[in-house]
UniProtKB/TrEMBL annotation:
GO annotation terms (biological process): defense response
Listed InterPro entries: Bet_v_I/MLP, MLP-like_ligand-binding, START-like_dom_sf
Superkingdom of origin: Eukaryota
Name under which the protein is recorded: Bet v I/Major latex protein domain-containing protein
Pfam families assigned to the protein according to its UniProt record, in alphabetical order: Bet_v_1 (PF00407)
Matching Gene3D superfamilies: 3.30.530.20
Bet v I/Major latex protein domain segment(s): 2-152
SUPFAM superfamilies: Bet v1-like (SSF55961)
Length: 154
């Protein structure tokens, strides 16, 4: 059994792809906590600049009913492909995985967009399950973001 894995999911939204990318890759990141406060309580810049590769950010969030803190480095922001790659460097995911990255890519679809989430990871051992619950968390978070940004629209 391989310790390396990859999981992907696509979530349709009513939000244009460019706006999705901006929200998930720039100085707009701290605003995400008001879009899904039950899931995400805060996003802090620890090092570097918002929206710049190499910057380190800290996420304070609730996962599976418990408060969590994760630190990540923004590895890459591709404004042409509307994608951002985050590498987890500290936090609960590093207890079970030797490496963990998540990539979001926004794509236009009709008047809205689609967020493609991709998780790339290496488990500590064969007994560690795939991070399905975390992928589900990202799907639910994306739906919360969509609901928040489209409320009041008809």
């Amino acid at each position: 059994m391989s310790l390396y894995g990859r999981m992907e999911v696509a979530v349709e939204t009513n939000i244009p792809a460019e706006k999705l990318h901006d929200l998930l890759s720039s100085s707009s990141l701290p605003q995400l906590s008001c879009m899904s406060p039950a899931k995400l309580q805060a996003v802090h810049l620890l090092k570097g600049e918002w929206g710049k590769s190499g910057s380190t950010i800290c996420w304070n969030y609730t996962f599976e009913g418990a408060p969590k803190i994760t630190k990540e480095v923004i590895e890459d922001i591709d404004n042409t492909k509307l994608s951002t790659t985050f590498k987890v460097i500290e936090g609960h995911l590093m207890e079970a995985y030797k490496s963990f990255k998540f990539i979001h890519q926004a794509a236009p679809k009709g008047e809205g967009g689609v967020v493609h989430w991709k998780l790339i990871y290496e488990k500590e051992n064969e007994n560690i399950p795939a991070p399905t619950a975390f992928l589900d968390y990202l799907v639910d978070f994306t739906k919360d973001m969509n609901a928040y940004l489209t409320q009041g629209q008809t």
